[in-house]
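So, does this match?
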Amino acid sequence: MRAYVFIDVEGDPTEVVSSLRDIPGVKEADALFGPTDAVAHIEALDEASLTEVVLQMYDIEGLSSTDTRIVTE
């Protein structure tokens, strides 16, 4: 299962992205210019594993909200 998570940040998005890259399951993470501050590409075995990765993101200081979009295959 793959998903993209669009992330809003309070503060410096590059610091949040650096921490995102340390979470198992996050394959890529990038800071963005525009209304969304960052995006992460996640790969997980199932929906429960995907949810666990997203919940771990909320442990990162400065991350304020996420919007998860599951890839259809």
